[in-house]
Amino acid sequence: MATIVAPAGDRKASERKFYTRMALFLVLLVLLGFGPSFYLKGLVPPYPRPNPTLPPAVILHGTIFSLWMAVIVTQTQLISARKHEIHMRLGKIAMFLAILMIPVMYLTAVWQVARANQPPFTDPLTWTIVPLAVIVPFAILVWNGWQKRRDAQFHKRMMLSAAILVVMGPAIGRLPIAPPTTLGMSILLLLGLLLFIPLFVHDRRRDGHVHPATKLGFAMGAITVAVPLAVFWMNLPWAKVAAHLPGVGA
Predict the structure, then answer these.
(1) How do residues 86-101 score in pLDDT, each as one tens digit?
(2) In the chain, what are the domain boundaries?
(3) Residue 116, SS3?
(4) How far apart (Å, rounded) are the C-alpha atoms in residues 63 and 34?
(5) Looking at residue 3, what DSSP letter applies?
(6) Phi then psi for 177, rounded to 5 degrees?
(7) What is the pTM (predicted TM-score) of this model?
(8) Which residues pair with 44 in a beta bridge?
(9) Which of 160, 134, 136 is nearest to 213 (CA)?
(10) Ordered alpha helix ranges (H), 43-83
(11) How far is CA 157 from the centre of its chain?
């Protein structure tokens, strides 16, 4: 059956709504996932998972991440308001925050070994593979988004995909919807990939086919899921590798 492509005017209006709603939905997931352990720590009951104290490094990570997500939402609003010049200026700040997030993501991942922030079915060293697996795919998406910033359709898909990557594992992984087991973790990681489905549907409705940037974004998301699953289900000796990473246990 042929896919019906919407008229140009309807496509633009639908597109603005889509990216705005996706950005706001991701922010909602962040608030739900990190509310008990970060944003509302001590104010609402914690989820049944390790919730250690918040050292300065974790607070810094959460602050930079929150600022970046705020910029992503703001960018969608600026596009909806057709304020493209301000959008481009703010894009430089978004890129700076994204670059800053990369070393902070790494340090938070390796420093969590000392905090014992892992779920009960694994050890701190092995658990580092979950946050570390996100870093390279995230960097690839952000870099492609910057390189293709003049290509609006490619750019916006890269930035949305990058936002999905940093939300799907950490935020969904904290929601109490699966038991703290290897199987439960696997289900949560795979659920994160479902966040790409709206983008696939949007592409099909807008253009009649899936945009190459969407495929790249999903591929990077799949890598962030496949690598940890391989480590846990195939009993790969990642802990021995992680033990020698710079900063582990600091």
Answers:
(1) 878 888 888 899 999 9
(2) 11-242
(3) coil
(4) 12
(5) P
(6) -120, 5
(7) 0.90
(8) 41
(9) 160
(10) 56-80
(11) 13
Handedness of CA 218, 25, 102, 109 (dihedral sign): negative
Between the CA of residue 57 and those of 28, 60, 109, what are the distances in Å? 23, 5, 10
pLDDT tens digits along 108-165: 899 889 888 888 899 999 999 999 999 999 999 999 999 998 898 999 999 999 999 9
pLDDT reported for residue 52: 67
CB atoms closer than 10 angstroms to residue 199: 22
Question: Is the torsion defined by CA of 16, 20, 26, 32 positive or negative?
Answer: negative
Cβ neighbours of residue 49 closer than 8 Å, sequence gap 6 or more: 119, 174, 176, 180
Helix (H, G, I), strand (E, B) or coil at 148: coil
Instruction: Write out the two tokens for 120.
Output: 């009960």
Task: Give the contacts of 125 (CB within 8 A, at least 6 positions apart).
Answer: 113, 238, 239, 242, 243, 248
**Would you say 116 and 126 are in contact if contact means Cβ atoms under 8 Å apart?**
no
